Amino acid sequence: xxxxxxxxxxxxxxxxxxxxxxxxxxxxxxxxxxxxxxxxxxxxxxxxxxxxxxxxxxxxxxxxxxxxxxxxxxxxxxxxxxxxxxxxxxxxxxxxxxxxxxxxxxxxxxxxxxxxxxxxxxxxxxxxxxxxxxxxxxxxxxxxxxxxxxxxxxxxxxxxxxxxxxxxxxxxxxxxxxxxxxxxxxxxxxxxxxxxxxxxxxxxxxxxxxxxxxxxxxxxxxxxxxxxxxxxxxxxxxxxxxxxxxxxxxxxxxxxxxxxxx
Length: 262
What we know:
The chain has helices at about 5-20, 25-30, 40-45, 70-80, 100-110, 125-130, 145-160, 170-180, 200-205, 225-230, 240-245, 250-255; strands at about 50-55, 60, 65, 85-90, 115, 135-140, 165, 185, 215, 235-240.
């Protein structure tokens, strides 16, 4: 069993427990009456800017603890001040040490859109994401059927959220396109082996339709990496570990953006 399979198994058990705390019916009621979300898709298309989705990640299976006791609000504020187009917040608790409280705290600290990054398997989690304050959420193609992906995209849009649909292979990219995804992220990390290379984005990105917002995820270390990806047609860049490894993630983002931070 690879890492992703273990995470998904744990997530199914966690969702069952979450439903005991917040019933599906109540989640739908709260989600549909929540204030409108911030426009995640538009934030990634800012003209003349390097559009970074800056991630708050306390730990990961590949790196172990990164900043297990991270001050979420301070990091979120630092990212926003450095010029982040949006934030990504890990809410998976067992493997990434995240929580829904982290997302809510980050949302209160900034005015940019906030993405919920988790392992979303069913409709309940989409409603739950809106209740937590997420403006968007990650949908991982590999762990969803084609029908399931289309359904979750539809539920998210019914709540005025445009999801980030993650792919790692050509087949997954086609599945995302066929499902009507408008924002597609190419993950440079193989979720089975945890190996990472931006060459994956450089290979898959140019094959995506021109209408799609293209996001490169993971393994982006330098400004040179960003410029290579921009030249390949990417609109935005999800960067987490590269920033969270530093004592001041916001300052690290500012350095990476340079003159594009303002």
